[in-house]
């Protein structure tokens, strides 16, 4: 398949409004630089964000903010990451890295970004961190310490 030429990671990103994020594109083919596009579901079109050439010079699309999007290159032109800051729910969409090859564009597999005002809470079990401090042993009755385990609010500070 031609997707193997451009590998994007991760496939899905969930981030919070006002935070920042990054996604990676690995290029296994000769290229003159990497294009980043966003597919907008609501507007049903591809939006050109930024092109980064081999010299690391970036060319931005119309109305694309330079302090919001930046491309960083690593490992001798074989890997590019797109950094997005000041995230807003309107930044949600699927981001594609792309190279042009003999007058056609090859697209990566895409990274789906969702920006939410509040992130979903983790399941209840992970909310009470297990204390690394030694817990005083209650030797009198094993039952007392067992109920202490089941009800975290009884744990000693």
TrEMBL record:
<keyword id="KW-0393">Immunoglobulin domain</keyword>
<keyword id="KW-0732">Signal</keyword>
<keyword id="KW-1133">Transmembrane helix</keyword>
<keyword id="KW-0391">Immunity</keyword>
<dbReference type="InterPro" id="IPR003599">
    <property type="entry name" value="Ig_sub"/>
</dbReference>
<dbReference type="InterPro" id="IPR007110">
    <property type="entry name" value="Ig-like_dom"/>
</dbReference>
<keyword id="KW-0812">Transmembrane</keyword>
<dbReference type="GO" id="GO:0016020">
    <property type="term" value="C:membrane"/>
</dbReference>
<dbReference type="GO" id="GO:0002250">
    <property type="term" value="P:adaptive immune response"/>
</dbReference>
<dbReference type="GO" id="GO:0050776">
    <property type="term" value="P:regulation of immune response"/>
</dbReference>
<dbReference type="InterPro" id="IPR042414">
    <property type="entry name" value="CD8B"/>
</dbReference>
<feature type="domain" description="Ig-like">
    <location>
        <begin position="4"/>
        <end position="108"/>
    </location>
</feature>
<dbReference type="GO" id="GO:0042288">
    <property type="term" value="F:MHC class I protein binding"/>
</dbReference>
<keyword id="KW-0472">Membrane</keyword>
<keyword id="KW-1064">Adaptive immunity</keyword>
<feature type="region of interest" description="Disordered">
    <location>
        <begin position="120"/>
        <end position="157"/>
    </location>
</feature>
<dbReference type="InterPro" id="IPR013783">
    <property type="entry name" value="Ig-like_fold"/>
</dbReference>
<dbReference type="InterPro" id="IPR036179">
    <property type="entry name" value="Ig-like_dom_sf"/>
</dbReference>
<protein>
    <submittedName>
        <fullName>CD8B protein</fullName>
    </submittedName>
</protein>
<keyword id="KW-1015">Disulfide bond</keyword>
<dbReference type="GO" id="GO:0009986">
    <property type="term" value="C:cell surface"/>
</dbReference>
<keyword id="KW-0325">Glycoprotein</keyword>
<dbReference type="InterPro" id="IPR013106">
    <property type="entry name" value="Ig_V-set"/>
</dbReference>
<dbReference type="GO" id="GO:0015026">
    <property type="term" value="F:coreceptor activity"/>
</dbReference>
<dbReference type="Pfam" id="PF07686">
    <property type="entry name" value="V-set"/>
</dbReference>
């Amino acid at each position: 398949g031609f997707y193997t030429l451009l590998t994007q990671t991760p496939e899905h990103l969930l981030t919070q409004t006002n935070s920042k994020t990054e996604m990676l594109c690995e290029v296994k083919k000769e290229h003159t630089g990497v294009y980043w596009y966003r597919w907008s579901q609501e507007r049903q079109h591809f939006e050109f964000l930024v092109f980064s050439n081999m010299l690391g010079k970036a060319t931005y699309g119309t109305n694309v903010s330079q302090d919001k999007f930046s491309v960083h290159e690593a490992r001798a032109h074989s890997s590019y990451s797109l950094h997005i800051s000041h995230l807003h729910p309107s930044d949600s969409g699927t981001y594609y890295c792309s190279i042009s090859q003999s007058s056609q564009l090859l697209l990566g597999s895409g990274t789906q970004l969702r920006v939410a005002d509040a992130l979903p809470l983790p399941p209840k079990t992970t909310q009470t961190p297990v204390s690394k401090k030694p817990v005083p042993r209650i030797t009198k009755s094993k039952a007392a310490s067992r109920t202490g385990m089941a009800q975290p609010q009884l744990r000693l500070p």
